[in-house]
Write a structure and sequence with these properties.
By secondary structure, the protein is an all-alpha fold. About 55% of the residues lie in helices and about 0% in strands. It is elongated.
């Protein structure tokens, strides 16, 4: 089995962060339209971020963190198989 490349690592992180945004938004009883209002990001784009179909920049992650009223590091609070990528912690 070949080692996953950087693109795989990036895509997997993108999906997991998107899921976290969705989970926290739902827990907060917020809609995608609420995030649109709070971030200035169209709700259709919010959906794409949540599904991992859009690249998250640091600026975008900060906008989501502020809108969700969380510390940005909470967006990375998920299990991740680091061994899959042979990356030292």
């Amino acid at each position: 089995m070949s080692k996953p490349d950087v693109a795989d690592f990036h895509k997997d992180l993108q999906i997991l962060i998107g899921k976290r945004i969705s989970e926290i938004r739902t827990k907060n009883n917020q809609t995608q339209q609420d995030l649109e209002f709070l971030t200035g990001i169209d709700s259709a784009e919010v959906s794409k971020y949540e599904k991992g179909k859009r690249n998250l920049t640091l600026k975008t992650m900060i906008k989501f963190a502020v809108a969700l009223q969380i510390h940005p590091k909470q967006l990375f609070n998920f299990d991740f198989d680091i061994e899959k990528y042979k990356i030292d912690e």
